[in-house]
Amino acid sequence: MIPPLDIVILAAGKGTRMKSDLPKVLHPLAGKPLISHVLAAADQLKPRSICVIYGHGGETLPQAIARSDLAWARQEPQLGTGHAVQQAVPYLDPNAICLILYGDVPLTRYETLQEMTLIAREGAIALLTVYLANPTGYGRIVRNAHGQVERIVEQKDASPEELAINEVNTGILCLSAGKLSGWLARLGNNNAQKEYYLTDVIGMATDEGERVIPCHPAAEWEVLGINSRAQLAELERLHQRNQANQLMADGVTLIDPARIDIRGSLICGRDVLIDINAVFEGDVVLGDGVQIGANCVIKNVEIAAGVQIKPFCHLEGARIGANAVIGPYARLRPGTELAEETHIGNFVELKNAQVGFNSKINHLSYVGDASVGRKVNVGAGTITCNYDGVNKHRTIIEDEAFIGSDSQLVAPVTVGKGATLGAGTTLTRDAPAGQLTLSRARQLTLPGWKRPVKK
Ligand code: UD1
Ligand code: CA
Known about the structure:
Layout: E1 5-11, E2 28-29, E3 32-33, H1 34-44, E4 49-54, H2 60-65, E5 71-74, H3 81-86, E6 97-102, H4 110-121, E7 125-131, E8 140-143, E9 149-153, H5 160-163, E10 167-176, H6 177-185, H7 200-207, E11 212-215, H8 229-249, E12 253-254, E13 260-268, E14 273-274, E15 278-286, E16 291-292, E17 297-299, E18 302-303, E19 308-309, E20 314-316, E21 318-320, E22 325-326, E23 330-332, E24 336-338, E25 343-346, E26 348-355, E27 360-363, E28 366-372, E29 377-378, E30 383-385, E31 395-397, E32 402-403, E33 408-410, E34 413-415, E35 420-421, E36 426-427, E37 436-437
Parallel strand pairs: 1-4, 1-6, 4-5, 7-11, 12-14, 13-15, 14-16, 15-17, 15-18, 16-19, 17-20, 18-21, 19-22, 20-23, 21-24, 22-25, 23-26, 24-26, 25-27, 26-28, 27-29, 28-31, 29-32, 30-33, 31-34, 32-35, 33-36, 35-37
Antiparallel strand pairs: 2-3, 6-10, 7-10, 8-9
Bound molecules: uridine-diphosphate-N-acetylglucosamine (UD1) and calcium ion.
């Protein structure tokens, strides 16, 4: 039988250098908490269980993550990484293999971890190490005369010769859960930091003749941890650059790959073009040939083929049909559904509005809680008065209606098919189909009126 996989994620540490009230692992990278990246990689490995060791910040972390399928073990006080993993022992299956991850090391790739589980399933200990030009601060990997890993020595306990080693411990390892539990029970804290070091397990294991197989990440960013806001910002840029490179490899044109932020998932069709400073959040889908202008923020939006989003648009929770033209300076709020070939222009706000084929709302309008038919023209400055201070009401504008500029449609109200509203109309009752409706004080001119003059 293949041994099951139990994953332990260490996240009890204080994160002092963040200088934050928020637990470190809840700080966001690419729009989601650091630990959520780790959990996503863990989930991909299809483990039997995941146990998170938490402590600093109390219940904030389990409450924020709110996943009932996780085991949560509180470590209080925090006496070192070995002590942290000890808290997970009650949750481990002795026949399982155990993978140790860190809530503040967010970008380790599934492939790297998968390889480690294969090694552990064959009975060895997989240890993720990396060679660093400057190894200061890390535990060093001590190898024997045959080049085999023998033990790990922490920076503060290392001799000058050991400090010269530039192969360092990333902290990530995978090994038999049963054996791990035995070694953890025998850990002492007789070291420079008076801590129970998880790393001492490696020396214990090799003393018993266990094999330690070092694994290496494909790139250094896979094992970078976050200790400060500066490191968080650096890793954010690195991750964004990786995502940008992937998009370009998939055939997307990025005017500047250093100026795009994807905080969620972005799926692109063929020949999509994205200008500078676009921010994508949540789940965004861009169809073939879509063009995104500079400085747009786009969240949870589905955009069909051939759509042009001009600069400075803010789009959220919308669906946009093929060949629509949006912006510049348009705001689409949740519930907006635009049919094909619609035109939404500058300073137009739409909310919970469905707009039919080839209709145009081009200038300075608010259309909320509305159904707009096909080939409707909504003139500049038109406003749906959808809110009476207590309740929201719907406006219905039927096919081919023409709404004169600066009209107010006081909902609930309907404009019939092919109706025309005169400019400046305040519509409080339904406008009949095919006719001109207007509400407007009559224009008058006073004969003989003279401007006052200065006395
Ligand atoms: C640890 C390793 C070191 C390695 C380095 C990589 C040990 C003894 N040392 O050192 O070899 O090079 O990571 O970054 O393991 N944590 C707890 N409870 C604790 C202590 C730590 O949950 O009591 C968590 C922290 O939140 C953090 C992780 O464990 O996510 C690592 O702890 P940290 O104190 O940063 O370990 P290092 O001293 O950096
Ligand atoms: Ca650390």
